[in-house]
Structures are given as C-alpha cells and as structure tokens.
Amino acid sequence: MDTTGPVERVLRGIAISLVILFFMFPIFWILLMSFQTNETILRVPPSMVFEPTLQNYRALITGRLETQTSTLEIRFMSNLYNSFFLSATSVAVGLLLGVPAAYAFARLKFRGSEDIAFTLLSFRFAPPLLVLLPLTIYFQQLGLSNTYGGLIWVYQLIVLPLILWIVRGYFEDIPADVEYAYRIAGHDFWATFWKVSLPLAMPGIAAAGLLAFIFAWNNFIFALVLASADKQPVTVGALAFVTASGIQYGQIAAGIVLSITPTFLLAILAQRYLVEGLSLGAVKG
Amino acid sequence: MSLSLENIVKRYKSETVLDGVSLDVARGETLVLFGPSGAGKTVLLRLIAGVIDPDEGRIAIGGQDMTGVEPEDRGLGMAFQNFALFPHMDARKNIAAPLTARRMDKASMAETVSRVARMLKIEHVLHHKPKELSNGQKQRTSLARALAAAPDVLLLDDPLRNVDAKLRFEMRLELPRLLKSQGATVIYVTQDYKEAMALGDTIAVLDAGQIHQIGTPEDIYLRPATVEIARLFGDPVINLLDVTPQMVDGRVQAMLSGVAVPLGAAFEQAVGRDCTLGIRAEALKFVPADTAGAIPVTIETEAPLNEKTITLALTRNGREVMISRPATQEAPSMGVAHVLPDPSSLHLFERATGRRIVGAAKATVPQGALQ
Amino acid sequence: MSDTIRSTRRPRRFRVSRRFLPYLLSLPALLTCIGILIPFGTAIIYSLQRYRLSQPWNRQFNWGKNYVDFFYDPNFWNTVKVSMTYAFTAVTLQLLLGLGIALLLQKRTMFNNFVSIMLLMPLMTAPVLASLMWKLMTNPGFGILSHMASLIGLQDFRWGSDPKTALLTVVIVDIWVYTPFIMILLLAGLRSLPKQPFEAAALDGVPRLFVFWRITLPMLMPFLLTATLFRVIESIQQFDIIYAMTQGGPGNTLMVFQVEAYLNFFQATNVGRSAALLLILWAITYVLSSIFIKNWLRLREKQRGEA
Q1: Are residues B187 and B257 in the same domain?
Q2: Distance from the Cα of residue A138 to its chain's centroid
Q3: How far is A61 from chain C (nearest CA, A)?
Q4: CA-CA distance, C149 to B233, in Å (whole number)?
Q5: For an interface test with A, which of B43, B80, B85 has the most A Cβ atoms less than 10 Å from its Cβ?
Q6: What is the DSSP secondary-structure string of C47-73?
Q7: pTM given for the model
Q8: pLDDT per position as a tens digit, B2-59
Q9: What percent of chain A has pLDDT over 90?
Q10: Which of A87, C7, C172, C219 has the smallest number of Cβ neighbours within 10 A?
C-alpha cells in the first residue's frame, strides 16, 4: 500500500474528509445549537456566528423554563437520573445473574447448556414488542407497571445476553489447569471462583458491564411502553420534550448533548472492547 | 500414603480414554507413568487429583476411597506440564496458595515459602509475576507450589516438558534427591524414557488407555513386554528385524542376511513362529569379517551423539540397522563392515501380537542407554 | 507435619454436588429469562384471539383469523413492503459505506485509529436521540439541512414530513447511526487477516482490484456476513428511529412492523392483530437469526482459535 500515487492520496484525503463531515457534522451542529438562544437558531440563513449562552443548560438543570408568558416545569434532570439509575442497576443485576451463568456455560458443560445459551442469545434478536405488549398487561396485574423493579427486570433482556456471551468467552480463555491448580492446592470451588476465575476474567466483566450500560442507556422502547413520566429515562423524556409547548430548540439540543455525553465517555473508556461487545463476543478487536 | 487405582475407565463422548487401568503405588514410592502423547496419562492424573470423575473404577489414597471427595480435600500436590501458575499472583503468592488454604499463620507461611524457594533456588524471583519469569523459573515455581504444603501424594505432570534441554538435564539429576527428601508418594508423568528410568522406582507404561507393563526401570528396558515398549525405551530406537527362528542341530537360530544368528535355548518356544527380532543398537558390535555369525552390512552414515557414535547401515536385504558404540572406540566409517549381535541381549516378539516371547536377557542396563 | 496441616484445615462453608453446581450457577439467570418467555406464550394466544382492549367482553378465540385477514389487508402488505424496503436500502448502503470506510482506515496509524474512534460516536448515540438531532436539522423553519437543500435549488424540501422523502430521511439517520457498526466489525476483520497472501500478491504485481475481489473479499466474508445479518435482523425490526422521526407517517409511508404493532396496540387497541403482526415479524427474524447464529458461532470459534 506504500505505492500510492499523489492522485490516490488526494482522493483518499477527500473521501476521509467527507466521511468525517457526514458523521461528525450533526453532533457538531447540535452542540452549537445547545449554546444558542431561539433568536439565533431561527436566523435565516443559519450562521455559525453567535454569542454563546449557557441559558439552555441552566434551564434544564434548574428544571425551570422561563418564557414570556409563563414558567414551565421540566423534569429533564429526573429523566437523566432515571437513565443513570436504571442502567446502573440493570447492569449490576445483570452482572450478578450473568457472570455465574457465563461461568457455568463456559466451564461446567451440562446437559442442554448450549441450547439454553442459544435461546438466551436469540432473545437478543426477537422483536422486543412481542414480549413488551403482553407484559404491559401482566405488569398491571402484578403491580409492576411503572416501577423501577419491573423495568430493571425487563432491561435484563438487553443486558443479560450481552454479559453472558462476552464474559463466557473470557472464562473460556482461562486455562482449566490454572483453576485445577487452585482447587488441588486446597481451595474449594467458591474460593477458586472468587480468587482465580473472577480476577482473571475481570477485563471482560468490566467491558461487558460498560457496554451493557451503554445499551441500557440508549434503550427506548422498553421504557416507552412500560414507564410513565416519573420513571422515564432520557431517551423517552427527550422525545416528549419535542411536543411539549413552549420548549425552546436550544434546550432540546442541550438535552440531547447532556444525554449522549455519558455514553460517549464510556465508549472511549471501553473502546478496546467495543468490537468484541458489539459482535457479542464473536470478533476480537 | 499409598495410592491405588482399581479398574479405572474414563470415556469422553464415545471415545474411551482410559480402559481399565489398575495401579498400586506404595507409600514413599515414585511411580513413573510413561507413555506417548495421547496415551491418557494426563487424564489419569486429573482423575487422581479429583478434578474430573472416572466413569468406572475406584481410586483410594491411603486406603481411603476417594469417590466423591473434592480435589481440595485429597491433600495432594500437583505440578502441571504448562505450569498453570496463577497469572495474577506473584511467585510468592503462587507458592503460598496451598498454605493459605490450610490457614497457616503468616510467619510460618513466610518461613515455609522461603524454605521451599531456597530448595528450588528461586528466592530471588519471589516478587515476580509469572509472565516475568523464565520458563525454568516458572517450572521451579510450579514445583515449589506443589511441594509447599508437604503433601503426602505428589502428582507431577511432565514438569520438564516445557523447559530447555540444559535445565531438563540438571533437573533430572536434582529431582530424585528432592523427591526422596519429601518422602511423598509420587506419580510422575513423562514421555521421555531416560527421565522415566532416572526417576522411577517403578515404571508403568500406558498406551491407548491401557497399562502395558509395570516394572522396575531395568525390567522395562531389558524385558520390554511388547515391541512398542521396546521401541519407546531406547535411543536410538531398537532395531527390529523380521525372523522365523529355526531349530538347527539342537540349537535355536535365526537367519539374518544369510547368516545364522544363534538365539539361545530360552527361545525354543519361538521355533517356527513368525517373529520380530529386537536388537538394541548397543548390542551390535563391529567385528572382523571372519568372525563366526558376523552379519555383513553397508555403512550409510555416521552421527556422533555426545559420548556415543551411531552408525546407520543397511543389511543385504536393504533393512536399516543402527549400531551404537562409545565415541572413543574406533570403527569403520564407510564401505562394508561386519557386526555381531550380543546373544544375551536379544529380544524376540511374536510378530502378530507384538508380545514378548520369554527369553533370557542381560541383567543390567548398559551405561550408554541413559545418556 | 502433613498430619498437623490436615487437622487444621478449615471446615467447608457450603458445598454443592458437582452435578447440581452448573444449574445452581445458571438458574437465577434462567429464571429471569423464563419470566420473559411467559409473555411470549401469551402473545401467541393473543394472536389467535379477537381481542380489543376497548371491548374486553368481545374477547374470544378466532383461531388464526387474524393471520388469514392479513392476506386481504393492504395495510399489512404495505407494512411488509415498507419494512423490507427500509431494511434492504439501509443495510445495503451501510454495507457499501462501511466497507469503504474500513478500507480507507485499514492501515494502523494514529490518525486512522483516531478517526475510527471518532466515527463510533454516532453508534453510541441512542437511535431516538439521533432521530431527534436529524429532526432539528431538517426542521423546515430553521433546519440547516433544509436550508442547504434550498441552496442547491430544492425549494421546500420537507425531508421526513413529505411522503416522497420520508423513507430517504429515516434511512439516512439509520445509516448515520449504524454504518460505524459495520465499519468497526469489518475493520477488525481486515486487520485480522493474514498478511502473506497480500504480500505474495504485491510481489507478483497482481492488480489491486483483483486482489480485492479475489483475496480480500472472500477472506472477509465471515465478517461481512455476520455484520450484514446482524443489521438486517435489527433494521427489519427498526422502531426507535422511525417512531421518533415520524411515528410511521406521513400517512402510512413508514408503517414498519413494530411501529404498526405498537400503534395497533395502544391506539387502535387491537391486541389480536398487533400480536399476530409481531409473531410474523418474529418468524422472519427467527429464520434470519438462526442463520446468523450459525455463522456467528463459526466466526467466534475461528477467532478464539487464533487468539
């Protein structure tokens, strides 16, 4: 590939620039909008020259929207909190359930284990509404509708297969002899699991946890169907924003920026494991 | 502690890996489990360690049935072929692992670790993680870990397999003393016959999931039960020639390249049967052409091998034979030469079954065999 | 000495026989999922019933009538058509674009790695929020893209709110979000390919286009297949982007399976039809995902073997 001529290099440069423009421009533009007032946003033609303001962020964080006619209460911060709480708890529960199961699937091959593992995987690909719609009715009967508990349970649908299949791969990569050596040294199964298997699979567990958090955070449909206003995460909340009267466009943009920043940061943190996570453990990055 | 295995059977899916293995090892004895790769040696060790369960049969340690006893309760020490060190712990923690399990107090634990480390000459690397250790140091660490709690039964799974030749040689000299000093019952797995002969009080030859011979190192070398064992024990590989012994003038003899080779009276029962004659390379000697019973060969090539020299030659009917002699000894290096087999160290096997036909043989292993 | 050691061994905390251990470890996860399997069974029953939330008294089994009705239901066929068109267009474009970008970034340089991480940002954006972003940019009043459209002579280009361009708009959002997914999988694939065939080809002066068709593409096939199937399965079920952008509108131009089923359930309260619709979608994804899983597993084994 070192034989590239100048023409080719220029073409490559243009291609990469176009790619970056297409994928980065929306984020850049929304970021700009989030620092503008409605007056500058509504200018024709649109311009990148404006006096930046933090009033959109201030309004979101304080939860009070001052308009000429009235003061509007918005619950964006509570949406943000819900997102954090739902994602973090779902991941914690998912790890608690998924890591031991991943170990069982990786190490202690048992009757039907492969079938079960695949069934769990196929959940990942079933239409979520198929399960969600009957669940709305069940949740009403069980008193689970619009509870964090119910949502966290359903979030396992996204979180569990991911954790199970990534962590399983990491457990499989630990040589069986290393575990045997610890058992033979006189430690029981649980001590071995705790002191050898878990620490050795830790990078995978951390990666799976981070990715599961991102997926849970970005989920929309589960909360749309099962949560009402006070339990809604930002994905549902932001959409409700648009239709709310009196909202300013800059505030929507600021809301988007606040909602996507956590996943961006986590993605950078988990960058090395993203490929593995996105392919459910099939491709190593 | 004595160790006994009774009719152990282990299958993986439809494949039978161990097929009725029985063994008895007396307290303090070192038993070498010898066999080619894939013979089931490692599986057998894992069964004894209790990390996998046999499909049939019984394992007893110190007379106690081990069925259902978890590995951590069997009081064993084990060293692995690939060392199986805990990658996230330094050498000191690795060695101390059996001691923490036994809830030893800090001071005596530190004392034990440094004593074992001193014995194995790895005191200076105790703070290193396994990936910072050389192969030799890894190997010693894994041995130290196996020995640390002074277990009654020690399982060593080919611990010298993955170390370089120099270290292997050193350890082969060092290990017997070390093992004896422990006073433990040892099962040592190897596929190196020299290692087996150097370390074993008893050698059990395992092949294809079955024990083919159990005996002292001398037994196995001098009286191999099968052609296969004769081939596995010995370097260079034993010369094997097809013969049909005959009775001529009241004496048993076999025709090799048109020369009648006397076999000795003990082989009488082989007369008229199709056999494989085994002659170890060191049992062939160059002799002058006019010696009675000398077999003419054409020398192909010669290779010096430490203290001995191996000559590859062809018999008249084109069969390869190898002749070994001390390096100091002069011998023809090309052209036609004559060799004479030592009648007291001939092995005769039935060709169809490969089984040994009882016969007399020398009582001591020649010096050169272990080098 | 060994005897004293043995006697001081601590008592076991809690033991489980080797036979039950795997079940004990996996049971909590399995129970959680079984709870989710029950609604699946319920959905099958719903789909065989005449069931409207607004008329609970009328609820009764009609044994497959919901399915039979689909044959004569232009709305259903519209849904099938829209879903297929959406999935096909989006995935094809993503595949071409993703492969192109992966090839551009194939070399491991600081710059390329930086760009590839940067390109992951759209993928990490929640699809709903991505839709929202594009909605702001295509707003007829102040949207930058509407303005740009007018600059190149497309006056009154209405993007998502015009039936003619609605599909194009959501496909663009889908491409924006998911092309990086294909890109990153293919990039990992490209970088894991063995070097020798390429070096040999370069030495022999084989034309680059030929190398691409005869060496790169075939070797990349398992990755391409996995990425494609992944995306097809997901985009045929796309809900977030379309729901956020137009709620299936304008009219029924974007009524894909899940949006249609959602509106059937919550607006028309026609539970039976909604469930039947979802089961058909499930059948389609089931077939696709069993193909996918086979291929995915082969890739997984291969990659583990090489690691």
Answers
A1: no
A2: 26
A3: 19
A4: 86
A5: B80
A6: HTEE-BTT-GGG-EE-TTHHHHHHTT-
A7: 0.85
A8: 899 999 999 988 889 999 899 999 998 999 999 888 888 999 999 999 998 899 999 9
A9: 44
A10: C7
